[in-house]
Amino acid sequence: MHIIVDGYNLIRQSDVLRRYERISLEEGRRALVLNLARYRKRRGHRITVVFDGWEGGSPQEERDLAGGVEIIYSRLGEKADEVIKRLLKAGSEEMLVVTSDREIAVFAERRGKTAIDSPAFADRLDRIAAGNLPAAPPEMETEDDDDRAGSAKKKGPSRRLSKQKRAALARLRKL
Hints:
Layout: E1 2-6, H1 7-13, H2 15-23, H3 25-43, E2 46-51, E3 62-66, E4 69-73, H4 80-90, E5 95-98, H5 102-110, E6 114-116, H6 118-130, H7 144-150, H8 163-173
């Protein structure tokens, strides 16, 4: 699975990473990449983190590799959102996007990819770092579970999640 991370979005949604960002933007990026490298080492997923460079970046898109994590800085005048969308369009592999940006999440889901919000993934990173990872992340709970317990009238396929939602849950289980 290829995990694409909206870098600054994740830093600003994580209590742990935000502390590093308060020291400096560079420290925030470094802490994120270090956490993602640890995650990659334990889980084996391909990870790409995308940072905005549109206001003060290079005229060309810059790429780097640290700890097995691919780092992309968008070029001057281009937002990280546009780079993430471009990666989603070009990718034919199984992909998961980490962002709290609703526009990117909807874009990913319309292309058959999965999106997870930044706080949920940040929590996952923290749990892996602490070594106490549950069998299934809490975001995999479905609303249907509550409905099934209280209602015996529903029967048949109407209780089943859509094919797209089942595929998204399968991707999330791989985290």
